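Hi everyone, sorry if this is the wrong subforum. Our group has a chain we'd like a structural model of before ordering constructs, and none of us has done structure prediction before. Sequence below.
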Amino acid sequence: MSSMIRSFIAFDIDSESVIKRLTEVQNTLANTGANLKIVQPQNIHVTMRFLGNISPNMIDSIYEEMEQVSFAPFETELRGVGAFPTLRYPRVLWVGIKKGAEELADISAQLEPRIRGLGFKPDSKGFSPHLTIARVRSGRNKAELIRAVTESEDYQFGVIKANCLRLKKSVLTPKGPIYSTLREVHR
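Answer:
Right subforum, don't worry. Here is the predicted structure as C-alpha cells:
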C-alpha cells in the first residue's frame, strides 16, 4: 500500500527582498508578545488550491490538469497585513495581494473545475488571494497584536513574478511543515 501525500498547488515567493520584508513584519508581529506560530520564510506561498492527501498515482493527473491552465507570467504586488476571520478575532495573519489578484482569481477559476473533475470536493472556503504569515494560537496580547496589524495594513512588501505554478508536497513535523515541489508548470 502506497502512502498518501499531503499536497497543495501554489506559487512560491522567489524574491529575497520580498522574503526579507515579510520576515521583518513577522518579527514585528512576534514582538507584540502575542501567541503566534510564525510561518517559516521559505514556506510562505500563495495557495491556489489545498488538495489534502493524495495517492502518489494522482500526481501525474493533477499535473496534466495544471498544464491546461492558461496564464502568462504576471507581476503580483504584495501589500498590507490583515487577519482571518476578522481583526477582532484573528486566527490567521496574512499579507494581501493587490496587483495580480485578478490573474490569480482567473487561474483559480480555471483550476477548480479541473481539480473537481479528478474527484476532489469543492473548496469550501473559496479562493481568497493572500499569503499566510502566522497563525494565532491564543488571545494573549491581542490588543498589541491588533495594533501591530493595523499599523502594517498598507505595508509595501514588493512585487513577485508569478510564472511557475507548483504542485507541492507537505510533510508535517513537530518543528513545522517541510514543503517540496512534486511538479511545476512554467510560463
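For your construct planning: The radius of gyration is 17 Å. DSSP finds four helices and nine strands in the chain.
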